[in-house]
């Protein structure tokens, strides 16, 4: 994971150096003006600086979670709440769902400041943000609700396949994921995407 972070950071540094070039590339001459190019360059440099900070903090947090064994700790603690709800803590599906619900909260908390800053500072400063605080948190709540609705059936089905797949586990799991991806491709633009964005038909002239 750290090696991947170092390699991607190396690529990001090369891109960052390219963004510092003030001369309009020949391939863009006649396509965009120097003024628009400077505006894009300033925006990209700002986002690049932010990206370095975000990725560094993320790798620190992820490494600490692995180094200090927090995932097993989350797993053990997540089973404690099931008996309080009258559920069987030895049920693998229920325990897994409880574990995923607990670990899902952590990235929401740690990632929220970065999302807010990216949307309401970087995007707003360069004129790209049209969201309000209310709309931002409304979309966040919608995403969490979708995860609560769609996550348990998918996770439960995957666990059942693993438990009963036998020697053909890989084939069954692949078939399930293939069918799931096809279903999501169908329902996403029709049911999910309209929850977060407004779509209008393109005018054909």
UniProtKB/TrEMBL annotation:
Residues 15-198 form the CAAX prenyl protease 1 N-terminal domain. Pfam families: Peptidase_M48_N. Keywords: Membrane, Transmembrane, Transmembrane helix. InterPro entries: Peptidase_M48_N (IPR032456). It comes from the Eukaryota. The chain crosses the membrane at residues 56-75, 95-122, 143-165, 171-196. This is CAAX prenyl protease 1 N-terminal domain-containing protein.
């Amino acid at each position: 994971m750290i090696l991947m972070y170092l390699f991607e950071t190396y690529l990001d540094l090369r891109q960052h150096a390219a963004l510092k070039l003030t001369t309009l590339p020949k391939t863009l001459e006649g396509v965009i003006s120097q003024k628009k190019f400077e505006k894009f360059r300033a925006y990209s440099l700002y986002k690049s600086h932010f990206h370095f900070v975000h990725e560094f903090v993320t790798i620190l947090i992820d490494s600490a979670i692995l180094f200090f064994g927090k995932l097993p700790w989350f797993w053990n603690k997540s089973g404690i709440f099931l008996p309080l709800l009258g559920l069987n803590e030895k049920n693998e599906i229920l325990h897994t769902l409880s574990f995923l619900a607990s670990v899902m909260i952590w990235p929401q908390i740690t990632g929220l400041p970065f999302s807010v800053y990216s949307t309401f500072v970087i995007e707003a400063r360069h004129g790209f943000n049209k969201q309000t605080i209310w709309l931002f948190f409304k979309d966040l709540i919608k995403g969490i609700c979708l995860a609560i609705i769609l996550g348990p059936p998918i996770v439960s089905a995957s666990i059942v396949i693993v438990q009963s797949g036998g020697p053909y586990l890989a084939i069954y799991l692949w078939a399930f994921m293939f069918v799931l991806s096809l279903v999501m491709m169908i329902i996403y633009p029709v049911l999910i995407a309209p929850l977060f964005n407004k779509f209008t038909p393109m005018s054909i002239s």
